Amino acid sequence: MTIQQFKTQCFSSLKNSPSVSLDIDVLLMHALDMQKTSLLLNRDFEIPEEKMHWLSEAISKRQKGLPVAYITGHKEFYGYDFEVTPDVLIPKPDTEILVERALDLLTEKISSNDANNREGKDAVIAVCDMCTGSGCVALSVLRSLIDNLSIPHNLIPEFTLCDISDAALCIAKKNAASLIPAEFLHKVRFCRSDLFCDVPQQFNAILSNPPYIPHNTAVALLSDGRNEPLLALDGDVLEHTAAFPPETSGDGLAIPKRLLFQAASHLKPNGFVLMECGEYNIQDAAHFAAQHAFSVENIYNDLEGQMRVLELVKK
Q1: Number of CB atoms found within 10 A of residue 52's CB
Q2: CA dist., res. 59 & res. 8, Å (int)
Q3: Which of 6, 48, 89, 112 sits between 20 and 30 A of 56, alpha carbons compared?
Q4: CA nearest to 31, candidates 62, 177, 224, 227
Q5: What is the pTM of this model?
Q6: Strands 203-208 and 126-130
C-alpha cells in the first residue's frame, strides 16, 4: 500500500477525530521516519509490511480515542520533543504561555542579580515546578535559559520538579536526560510530594499546571478514551492528610487553593507564582490568592482568548 492509498483508506475510519489529516500524517511520519514534506513528495512510496502492521494497530488505537501522542510516545512542546505516556498529561499549546512568561520574569531576575554582582547561593535563583508531570514546563524553561547566550552559566537557575506520582517523575527524569545537556543536569532535582508536604525549601519562583478541572467535567472528558490520568486533571481531589482543610465545592479549585495556601510559605520575599487554571475558575483562584499573602499581577489569556495563566507576587 502506498502512502497516498493509506491516507485515503484511513481518512473515513478516523472521521470522528477533530484532526484527521494531522493524525494520519503524524503516525506516518513516526512510522516511516519522514518529515511532512517527504510524505507529500513520496505519495507513491510503498509502505513496508512491518510498518503497515504498526500503522494498522495505531489507527485502531486512535479509533478508540487514544491520542496520537500516546501512540507514538512523543509530543512537541515549546519546540522540544517530550516523551509521554498515559502516566502524564499530554503537553498542550496553551501551557506554552506559562513558559514564555516564566522566561521573561526569570531573565529579569537573573539580569538583576548579575547587575548587582550578587555571588554564591544568593545569585542562583531557585525554581519549583509543582505537579510537573512530564516536566515540560520546567525543562522547557531551563533549556531555553541554557540556550540564551546572554545568561552566564553560573547564573542558570536550579529547578526542583515535584509530583505526587512516581510514574510521572520517571517520565520527567527521562525527559531531563534527553533535553538537558549533561553539564547542566545538576541543576535539576526531583521530589515526590503531595504538593509541598515533603518540600522543605523556599523558592524564588513557583511554576505550576496543577489539576484544576471540576471532578464531573474531568470524568466526562475522559469518557472519549483519551486515557489521560484523572489524577492530573481532577482539581477536586483532596487528601485526608492535607494541611489545608477546606471542603471541596466541585469547582475544581481544591488542589489549586491548597497549592497556593502552601506556596505562600515556600516563596522567598518578592517571589512569584505562575499557575495555569481554567477560564471558568481562574478569577476565583485569583480572589483566593489575594486573601492569602499574594498580590495579583496579571491574568494571561490562552490562544483562544480564554483566561489561562495567573501571575502572583508574594506580598
Answers
A1: 14
A2: 13
A3: 89
A4: 62
A5: 0.91
A6: parallel
Give the N- to C-terminal CA distance of the chain in Å, as an integer. 64
Q: Which three cell numbers stand for residue 37?
A: 514534506
DSSP one-letter string for the chain = -BHHHHHHHHHHHTTTSTTHHHHHHHHHHHHHT--HHHHHHTTTPBPPHHHHHHHHHHHHHHHTT--HHHHHTEEEETTEEEE--TTSPPP-GGGHHHHHHHHHHHHHHHHHHHHTT--GGGGS-EEEEET-TTSHHHHHHHHHHHH-TTS-GGGPPEEEEEES-HHHHHHHHHHHHHHS-GGGGGGEEEEE-STTTT--S-EEEEEE----B-HHHHHHHGGGS----GGGTBTT---TT-SS-PPP-SSS-HHHHHHHHHHGGGEEEEEEEEEE--TTTHHHHHHHHHTTTEEEEEEEE-TTS-EEEEEEEE-
The per-residue b/e assignment along 88-107, b for 16 or more CB within 10 angstroms, e otherwise, is: bbbbeebbbbbbbbbbebbe
Determine the Cα–Cα distance for residues 141 and 151; give it in Å rounded to an integer: 13
Check residue 216 and give its pLDDT: 86
CA distances (Å), 239 to each of 84, 143, 271, in order? 26, 33, 27
CA-based angle 107:109:114, to the nearest 5? 95
Q: What is the pLDDT of residues 128-176, one digit of tens each?
A: 999 999 999 999 999 999 999 999 999 999 999 999 999 999 999 999 9
- Polymer length in residues for the chain: 315
Question: CB of 218 within 8 A of CB of 230?
Answer: yes
- Name which of 181, 79, 184, 91 is nearest 132 in CA terms: 91
Distance CA 179, CA 80 (A): 8
